[in-house]
Every structure is written in structure tokens, then in C-alpha cells.
Design a protein that fits this description.
72% helix, MetI-like fold, 285 residues, globular, mainly alpha
Length: 285
């Protein structure tokens, strides 16, 4: 292998600099993954083992009693998991649908005050969530939506500023000539969006889908405030309740957090190629 080819494979860095870079990245990866590994190890222990053994000791004997308790026992998280899946799916469909429509309108239609409206909409990203919690709670309480499914999903159902911004910038990069050719064939705006623009936007849509599911799956503050009792508890609220219900039983709590994380890991593994393509296409490399 020539020196030029080796340098190209190392990104133009010398072998020593490349080795140092990989060591730093490896250290960062270990720091990021260590809490998850500790959570899994703790969840496979009994409370007595956790109290008597060192934290990083391999479980001996290895037990799945904590997971059995969470899936079929008195502390079952299955109802909360079902509610969380429903919330995530409804918000995924709602946010993608309305964000796509709004972003395409902002990208392709030049209406009076459109840029001002777009800027004002983006400015809402600067408003902390805690500022809007009390007004939203009062509104939903007065309309009878407290402790209901729609009370959980309505505040974020109709898109998000970040999603609209990202999609708008991507739609503006789609060649207008492709849309003009479709219009010459008799396609209207919705058919152009569906058959021309969206097929070219699959990586970005996959990335937004992952971001939406992860953010809603991990949402805690609003579900905690708007719901009471176990009926509409989401997974994050139910997991937090375990900490007070079983004070000190960290093996059960870490098993609950592991169960909550596992679906997100599987989701990312399924769509990681699309996420990578999206980051490459938008220049975030």
C-alpha cells in the first residue's frame, strides 16, 4: 500500500495522529457506554448480590427475576409500555405529516409575510418547555383533557420547529425542475410532494422519525404533570415511580431502565444506514 493511499484512509492524518484520535474516540465511547453496561449488570443481580458485591462484579448467579417481575409481576411495566408505544406512534405520524406539509409550504410558496412567520415559528425553539407547562395544564384541565391520551399527545402532535426547519432546508435543495416536470404531467402539489419530493427525502425522514420517537419515548415532564394514576402512565413516569415505590431496590429500577432503552437501541440499529445517509447528505460529517 502506497503512502498516499494510507494517508487517504487515515483522513490525511499521520499514523501517530490517527492513533491518538482513535484512542480519544474510544475513551469517549467507553465513557458513554459505561452507564448502560452498569445498568445491565445491575439488573441481572439480586438485591443481596448488589449489596454484598462490588458494583462492577459479574452477576453470580445470574438472574432474570427483575425482568420477570417487570413483565408479569405486581410491578408490571407492560401497561406503561403499551401507552408509550401508542403515544410514540401517534406523535410520529402527526409530527411527520404536519412538519412535511408546513416545510414544503415554507420551501416552495412565496407568500407575503412567509419569512416573518417562519422566523417567528423557529423562535419558539428558544422558549423553555417549563414556561409553557402551566398555561398548557390550565387549558387542558378546563377542557377536560387532563389524565387522557389526547392530553398527552396534543401539545406536540402538530409538528415541531426543528423538524420543519430541517425539512424546509432539505426541500429547498431538491431540484425544482423535477417538480416542474411532474406538474407538466398533471400532478398537483400534493402529488408532487408525495411522488417526487418524499421519495428523495427518505434519509431525512428516517432521521426525523428516530429523533421524534426517541424524544417522545423519553418525555417525562409533561406526562408526569398531565396524568394521574397508572391508567395513562408512560414508561418514564412508571420507571420514576418504581424508585419511590421500591426505595433502595436498584436492581429492579435498573431492569426497568434497561427495558426502556432496549427498543430505542433496536430502532437505531434498524435505521442507522438512513441516519448516516442523512447526515452525509446534509453535510454534517
Amino acid at each position: 500500500m502506497s503512502a498516499r493511499l494510507r494517508s487517504r484512509r487515515l483522513g490525511g492524518l499521520s499514523p501517530l495522529a490517527a492513533a491518538a484520535t482513535y484512542l480519544v474516540l474510544l475513551a469517549g465511547a467507553l465513557l458513554a457506554l459505561a452507564p448502560f453496561a452498569l445498568s445491565v449488570l445491575t439488573s441481572l443481580k439480586q438485591p443481596v448480590q448488589l449489596a454484598r458485591q462490588a458494583t462492577l462484579t459479574w452477576p453470580d448467579p445470574l438472574t432474570f427475576d427483575n425482568y420477570t417481575e417487570l413483565l408479569s409481576g405486581a410491578s408490571s411495566l407492560v401497561p406503561a409500555l403499551v401507552v408509550t408505544v401508542q403515544v410514540a406512534l401517534v406523535l410520529l405520524v402527526g409530527q411527520l405529516t404536519f412538519s412535511v406539509l408546513a416545510a414544503y409550504a415554507f420551501a416552495r410558496y412565496d407568500v407575503p409575510g412567509g419569512r416573518l412567520l417562519f422566523g417567528a415559528y423557529l423562535a419558539t425553539m428558544m422558549v423553555p418547555q417549563v414556561v409553557t407547562v402551566v398555561p398548557l395544564y390550565v387549558m387542558f384541565s378546563q377542557t377536560g383533557l387532563r389524565n387522557t391520551f389526547w392530553g398527552i399527545v396534543l401539545p406536540t402532535l402538530f409538528g415541531s420547529p426543528f423538524a420543519v426547519y430541517l425539512l424546509r432546508e432539505h426541500f429547498r435543495a431538491v431540484p425544482v425542475e423535477l417538480e416542474d416536470a411532474a406538474r407538466l404531467d398533471g400532478c398537483g402539489s400534493l402529488r408532487v410532494l408525495r411522488h417526487v419530493v418524499l421519495p428523495l427525502s427518505r434519509p431525512v425522514l428516517a432521521t426525523l422519525a428516530v429523533i421524534t420517537v426517541v424524544s417522545q419515548w423519553n418525555s417525562f415532564l409533561w406526562p408526569l404533570i398531565i396524568t394521574t394514576g397508572p391508567t395513562w402512565q408512560t414508561l418514564t413516569v412508571a420507571t420514576a415511580a418504581l424508585q419511590s415505590q421500591y426505595n433502595g431496590n436498584w436492581t429492579l429500577v435498573t431492569a426497568a431502565t434497561t427495558l426502556a432503552i432496549a427498543p430505542l437501541v433496536v430502532l437505531f440499529l434498524l435505521v442507522q444506514r438512513h441516519v448516516t445517509d442523512s447526515l452525509t447528505a446534509t453535510g454534517f460529517r
